[in-house]
Amino acid sequence: MKPKVDGYRAHQWLATHGKECEKYSGQWVAVGESGILSASFSFKDLMAKVDKLSVCLPIITKIPTDEDALYILRAQPS
Questions:
Q1: Distance in angstroms (rounded) separating the CA atoms of residues 75 and 78
Q2: Is the model's pTM score more than 0.85?
């Protein structure tokens, strides 16, 4: 049985490594406790890669592009 990713530690890594994540801009990523485990521009492709990982239940998220980030900031209610 594959070990589960500690979701808290994976979120903590993601929250504190923004600069490292920039190179994955616009991509879907699987995040483990010590960093990015896999990445792809296609969600379907990423999920196929996740199935082959030696861990289960990594955090799956999309790293926003600069353009996405501007849209997200503007979409926030006042």
A1: 9
A2: no
* Interatomic CA distance for residues 71 and 16, integer angstroms: 22
* Block mean pLDDT (10 aa), the chain, length 78: 93 94 96 96 97 93 84 59
- Show Cβ contacts of residue 27 under 8 Å, excluding neighbours closer than 6 positions: 39, 40, 41, 62, 63
3-state SS, one letter per residue, for 15-40 = HHCHHHHHHHCCCEEEEECCEEEEEE
Task: Label residue 25 exposed, middle or buried (CB < 10 Å: 0-12, 13-18, 19+).
Answer: middle
User: Does 2 map to a domain?
Assistant: no
Beta bridge partners of 40: 28
Number of domains in the chain: 1
Domain-embedded: residue 58 = yes
